[in-house]
Write a structure and sequence with these properties.
The chain is of the alpha+beta class. The protein contains 34 helices and 17 strands. Among the domains are: 90 residues, Phosphorylase Kinase, domain 1; 189 residues, Transferase(Phosphotransferase), domain 1; 33 residues; 136 residues, Rossmann fold, CATH 3.40.50.10610; 102 residues, Alpha Horseshoe (Serine Threonine Protein Phosphatase 5, Tetratricopeptide repeat). Strand 15 and strand 16 form a beta hairpin. The longest helix is centred in the middle third of the chain and has 29 residues. 48% of the residues are buried.
């Protein structure tokens, strides 16, 4: 059976008498293709339901309603429907092919010039008048449903929510009592909240005047660049609509004609009896305003032409000359103010806060976190948007916090919040995007999906946000934002569980993560992200000393290679492979290539910059290492691990005081590993008493791991307390009977004691096991006492580094 969900399935195929040429776009309620009508020899647009909605009776009815409703409308300002047909059980609409952009895309968050506002407004009003005269009410008029052709013609789209009324024109009424409960398949309430009329918000009977209120909101937004009714939540937006209080349009845009503001205010009357009664009335008022505006422009142009007539210059009164100069200055100033205002209002940064588990089921936490992660990763693909990384955003998990305050604390323009609710086998995601600077809602939506189609939630959400922010995405960016790495919902669910436990790092949790990643792979053997997650988990086990590198790293490398065999564009897998190449195999050229590839694929991937900094510092390229560590920290400013990583790079760069400051920042974030970092910083400076104090705090919090015992032994040795240093060595020896102990931990104690022979003995063992510490022989200050020894030079050559 022919599937209709992807480009590869349809492009080149013939559906009925239409040959599919290319995919135009997709959304929650439709996938649209350009096709050639083989009977009439013209190009048309074909709209299909997405595969996941093909069996949804509500979605099918909406598509049929759109076709039936719009097919009776033949007007230059309404998209023409040619036919509705069915092929192999799949319903589709053939409609007029439009070239241009939606009004939402055209505005891009800023006001349009008055000429365009009036021109588009007149055309939309004429289209509404035609629909209303047939007894058809649109019910979802908004900028996204108005298309502007390349030559400026406006077309009203998407009559999927429209209904025929009982009587034509103003007497028409439809029952909208289910407005607050009836959800479309895309999960949003009938109509879009920000453009709803008061009667629609109340669930009252609707007539054509409801469309006129929505049209008033569209005119307001075109003229000011902002919605008339805003709020931090859908409930507050509805309250603003019902209250009917708006910021005067001319206050937001002083260039707006008062006549246009009067039209907008009348269209936005809360009482429908005081509102415009017919679309034709708005059209007439806008047409008169356009005529008067054009007349003033012509008159001004004539005066200006006369002003610069050289032959009459000497006859010009000084007062008029002065007025012309003042007018020119004012026009220039206004232009610059507008320019900088538009620049200031650009949304160029966003924080995605952890979605709240609104279901009383702790097992849903993995899904909330996983969807949040995926949205962060998807939005990170946008080149012009700075997306704060997971660690920073998740510091607010479980905390009641004001998005506006969080946004200002984090230095971002917008904050995305959401709640996830499970009802039976259905997931409901409510989300909203807040403009921090304006304290207003940029967008809000609700999505309803079966658990078996959970990844559609992220795709829809990521697409809606990128459209709301009005970024002009490249084809590659669009692909990455809505990209699926698997079509197996169960594999995806298992992957999310694996990542959830990976982030909850502990030996027990890491083992659970491995099990879930392996289960995901068994469901989909080509699932690249699951292999990448498996590689990350093996690396974490080795990095934190839970497992020998000889045991973990070959597995990590194998998983990373399998990920890249399935999909070479997975940045996470390139980072995992690069890590194994440099810190385990000492294949420095290969590691560099994979790090560079990862950063190119996803410049916002924090781990890519973080681990790349370790690679660069190991090679002695400290300036570049610090630059990469800074990039990681810029993306994840509230990450304690990021601050810790920067501190480590500063130690390797021999900038000890700065390193100590950085570790103190991490410590302020309740990151207990910062005590180890601080101790290392003090020890590198030669302040061993302070180092010992920090190592003792770390050992207490870390419950006596080999790392903490080795640090204590080194400090005791440097403080000339050999008994305590030997006790540390004995403890490490006892630990070896129960768990893995890195030879590097033992070597560092002997270095502290000044026992070169035993130190080199254990460093040789480190090389045999490919312990990570030997990768930093070239730069770590803790090896400085050994550098004059030929054995040290031999170790450097063995690891692939030069002195």
């Amino acid at each position: 059976m022919l599937l209709m969900a992807t480009v590869s399935d349809l492009v080149g195929h013939t559906i009925s008498h239409y040959r599919i040429l290319r995919m135009i776009g997709s959304g929650g309620m439709g996938v649209v293709y350009e096709a050639e009508d083989l009977k009439l020899g013209r190009n048309v647009a074909l709209k299909f339901l997405p595969e996941e909605l093909a069996g949804d009776t509500h979605a099918l009815e909406r598509l049929r309603r759109e076709a039936r409703t719009a097919s009776v409308l033949h007007h230059p300002n309404i998209c023409t429907i040619y036919e509705i047909d069915e092929e192999r059980g799949r319903l589709f609409i053939a409609m007029e092919l439009l070239e241009g952009q939606t009004l939402q895309q055209k505005m891009r968050g800023k006001a349009l010039d008055i000429e365009t506002v009036l021109d588009v407004g007149i055309q939309v009003a004429d289209g509404l008048d035609a629909a209303h005269s047939k007894g058809i009410i649109h019910r979802d008029l908004k900028p996204a449903n108005i298309f502007i052709m390349t030559r400026g013609e406006a077309k009203i789209l998407d009559f999927g929510l429209a209904k025929h009324s009982l009587k034509p024109e103003g007497d028409a009424a439809i029952n909208a009592s289910t407005i607050s409960t009836d959800l479309s398949s895309s999960g949003t309430a009938l109509g879009t909240i920000a453009y709803m009329s008061p009667e629609q918000a109340k669930g009252k009977e609707l007539d054509s005047r409801s469309d006129l209120f929505s049209f008033g909101s569209v005119l307001y937004e075109m003229g000011t660049g902002m919605l008339p009714f805003r709020g931090a939540t859908p409930a507050l937006i509805l309250k603003a609509i019902l209250d009917g209080r708006i910021t005067p349009a001319v206050r937001l845009n002083p260039d707006l004609p008062h006549g246009l503001e009067a039209v907008i205010n009348k269209a936005l009357e809360t009482n429908e009896n005081l509102r415009y009664q017919h679309a034709s009335d708005i059209r007439s008022d806008l047409a008169r305003l356009k005529r008067d505006t054009d007349s003033r422009v012509v008159a001004t142009a004539r005066v200006a032409s006369s002003d610069i007539d050289v032959s009459s210059w000497r006859r010009r009164k000084p007062a008029l000359v002065t007025a012309a100069i003042v007018l020119a200055a004012l026009l220039t100033l206004t232009a610059w103010v507008a320019f900088f205002r538009v620049r200031h209002e650009t949304v160029d940064s966003i924080a995605v806060l952890p979605f709240v588990n609104a279901t009383a089921d702790p097992d849903m936490e993995y899904l909330c976190d996983g969807i949040t992660d995926s949205v962060i990763n998807n939005l990170s693909q946008l080149a012009h948007l700075r997306v704060l990384a997971r660690n920073t955003a998740f510091r607010y998990k479980g905390k009641e916090a004001d998005p506006k305050r969080i946004g200002k604390d984090l230095g971002v323009r917008a904050v995305l919040t959401g709640k996830l609710l499970q009802r039976g086998d259905t997931l409901v995601l409510q989300s909203e995007l807040m403009d921090v600077a304006k304290d207003s809602q940029l967008w809000g939506g609700q999505y309803r999906r079966k658990i078996s189609d959970v990844f559609a939630l992220e795709e829809d959400l990521s697409r809606e946000i990128s459209e709301t922010l009005r970024f002009r995405l490249t084809r590659e960016e669009k692909r990455r934002v809505t990209r699926r790495h698997t079509d197996n919902a169960e594999a995806y669910r298992l992957y999310l569980k694996g990542r959830y436990f990976w982030y909850l790092w502990s030996p027990e949790k890491s083992q659970k993560a491995i099990e879930y990643f392996q289960q995901a792979i068994s469901k989909d053997p080509g699932y690249a992200l699951a292999y990448a997650g498996l590689a990350d988990t093996y690396i974490s086990q080795a990095w934190f000393g839970e497992v020998s590198p000889r045991e973990a790293m070959p597995r990590a490398k194998d998983a990373a290679l399998k990920a890249l065999e399935s999909d070479d564009d997975v940045a996470e897998a390139h980072v995992s492979l690069a890590f194994a190449d440099c810190l385990y195999d000492w294949d420095w050229p290969s590691a560099g290539k994979h790090f560079e590839r990862a950063v190119a694929l996803n410049p916002s991937y924090v781990n890519a910059h973080n681990w790349y900094s370790y690679y660069l510092s190991a090679l002695g390229r400290s300036d570049q290492a610090l630059a990469e560590a800074k990039r990681a920290l810029d993306l994840d400013p509230a990450s304690p691990g990021g601050n810790q990583g920067m501190g480590i790079q500063l130690i390797y760069a021999r900038r000890y005081d700065e390193a100590i400051e950085q570790f103190q920042k991490a410590l302020e974030m309740d990151y207990h590993d910062a005590h180890l970092g601080l101790g290392n910083g003090y020890a590198a400076k030669g302040n061993y008493q302070k180092a010992l104090s920090e190592f003792q705090k770390y050992a207490e919090l870390d419950r006596g791991t080999p790392r903490s015992i080795a640090a204590l032994g080194y400090a005791y040795a440097r403080l000339n307390q050999p008994t305590e240093a030997l006790r540390a060595l004995n403890q490490l020896s006892e630990m070896e009977k129960r768990r893995y102990v890195s030879p590097g931990s033992v070597a560092i104690v002997y270095i502290g004691m000044g026992d070169r022979d035993r130190a080199f003995e254990w460093l040789e063992k480190s090389c045999d096991e490919h312990s990570f510490n030997v990768a930093f022989l070239k730069v770590s200050p803790f090896f400085d006492s050994l550098r004059s020894d030929q054995r040290f030079t031999d170790l450097l050559h063995r690891v692939g580094l030069s002195q």
